[in-house]
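This part of the workshop introduces the protein records we will be handling. A record pairs a protein's sequence with a compact description of its fold. As an example, a complete record with its sequence and its structure tokens follows.

_____
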Amino acid sequence: MNDLPPDLPRLRTLETWLQLTLEQVRQAIVVAQQREAQQQRAVPPPPPDWVLQLSIGGEGQPIAVHVGGCRSAGKRARPISRDQAMRAVTEGLEPCVLCRPDTELGIL
């Protein structure tokens, strides 16, 4: 501790600066803890029951029907209702061979 100033006024100044800095660190810790707790509470919404996989391109044409949560649907998918899924499969749109939405919909 030889790096500290020897006189009382400078020691008091250093003490004040350290207290202020410590308070800033403690406030930052509280904010970080709140942010972390909020992230842990954030639960992703459940997947939709049915999704329509879209093709690559500006128009995004439907190419397959999937059960919601099927990973092979990819990122180009949009949720659809059960009726829309049934209509799409019965009208000839390809059902996914992995998640088998046709079986889930009762279409054999």
User: Anything to note?
Assistant: Strands lie at 50-54, 62-67, 77-80. The mean pLDDT is 91. The chain has two domains: 1-43, 50-104.
